[in-house]
Amino acid sequence: MNITTVIGYVLAGLLAAGIVFIGARFLVAPRVAAAGYGVLPDLDQPGAGAYLSVKGVRDIATGLVVIVLMIAGATQLIGWMILAATIIPLADAAIVLRNGGSKSTAFGIHGVTAAVMLITSALLLIS
């Protein structure tokens, strides 16, 4: 495995672990997780907690898919999957901005995540 692939795998693993952690936080501490996301819903409204749980489960599943692909050694597939999934933090940034969230959260969290994902996918795809 060359250094580019190793760096790509390390970044992919960090991204996967990070999104699994974030997903778990949406299940365990939804108010804290939603605040970290950048838009705090009114959790007293019926069904608001359900949407946060859905986000948590989907985040966990997304991270697990990357982990499974890493275990399988599917370097190119991981690169393509992460590239395709970059739409998630880009959309998250737009959602935060559209709903009055802070620009620093939109760009500093979601924007930086998208940039790291693009770098990671490039490293894996050129391997």
TrEMBL record:
InterPro entries: DUF4267. The chain crosses the membrane at residues 6-28, 64-87, 107-126. The lineage of its organism: Bacteria, Bacillati, Actinomycetota, Actinomycetes, Mycobacteriales. Keywords: Membrane, Transmembrane, Transmembrane helix. It comes from Mycolicibacterium sphagni. This is DUF4267 domain-containing protein.
